[in-house]
Amino acid sequence: MMQLPNNVTIKEVGPRDGLQNEKTVIATPDKIEWINRLSRTGVRHIEITSFVNPKWIPPLADSLEVATGIARVEGVTYSALVPNMRGMEGFLKANLDEVAVFMSATETHNQKNINKSIDETFPVLKEVIDAALQNGKRVRGYVSTVFGCPYEGRTDVKQALYVSQKLLDLGIHELSLGDTIGVANPVQVQQVLEVFLREIPADRLAMHFHDTRGMALANVLASLQMGLTTFDGALGGLGGCPYAPGASGNVATDDLVHMLHGMGVATGIDEAALVASAQFMQDKIGRPLPSHTLQTVNAC
Length: 300
Known about the structure:
Blueprint: E1 9-12, H1 14-18, H2 28-39, E2 45-50, H3 63-69, E3 77-81, H4 85-94, E4 98-104, H5 107-114, H6 118-134, E5 138-144, E6 148-149, E7 153-154, H7 157-170, E8 174-179, H8 186-197, E9 205-209, H9 216-225, E10 230-233, H10 253-262, H11 271-285, H12 292-299
Parallel strand pairs: 1-10, 2-3, 3-4, 4-5, 5-8, 8-9
Antiparallel strand pairs: 6-7
Helix pairs in contact: 2-3, 2-11, 3-4, 6-7, 8-9, 10-11
């Protein structure tokens, strides 16, 4: 029998990563209501928006209104993506709990996503991280295209590790490793983690899988076998990357929780409340969402 952890932490990224690529514009009150519903499911970490220039991510143009409009629940961490010091101003006005910073493991995707080289990105993020820490906020880091890039192909694990270690050195407390275009497979996941775990403790790593080729849950299982216990998910399977053509949604939080509970791994999340929250956003978007759990519910 494989060794599985007793507990796993799920970090919900649907309100940010899930909605940033949606063509349907979700009204601000509906975003707020959705986050409030998520807060009551037992999820303990919700990434609610991004303080990015609205011209780059129009669906998240209401970041400050959303961040100041939600009803915060004690014990839930509310975070937002902050790309630069201008975004940091909005974050501090909202007074959320945690900053998220992001960059890519490959040069071409980083240029497409941030319009800077990898080495040019570090000083920008250092300013954000320093400001967050000075204001008593924790910082989470995302590294995209860890397993493969839409422009460069398979990512060199040494390059991904270089970017990751640099972010940790700058002061982030946790690193989320992203399979941005959903090309990873379980063997590759374990090979990459073997390299990372020689340098970085498992409790400082999280996994962020997309389900482009239906591999996300299998990759979660491979990560669990390597000792990883923190995973990002987007309710209903929402998501995608504006700068990664063909990237589909994140691993569906509802499918992930269903799998973990079925294997006897606790998450602290109320599955029925989670599905009801997914149905709420599905109705607002106006189309069936891709999670298997919702497909089953929709068929009933």
